[in-house]
Amino acid sequence: MGIVNVTPDSFSDGGRYLAADDAISHGRALLADGADILDIGGESTRPGATRPLVAEELARVIPVIAELAADGAVISVDTMRAEVAAAALTAGARIVNDVSGGLADPEILTVTAERGGAFVAMHWRAHSTTMQDRDHLHYPGGVVADVRAELELRIEAALAAGIAPDRLILDPGLGFSKTAEDNWALVAGVAQIQSLGHPVLVGASRKAFLGRLLADPDGVPRPTDERESANLAVTAALAARGVWGVRVHDVRANRDVLAAVRRLQEAAR
Ligand code: PMM
Question: Domain coordinates of the chain in residue numbers?
Answer without folding.
Answer: 2-268
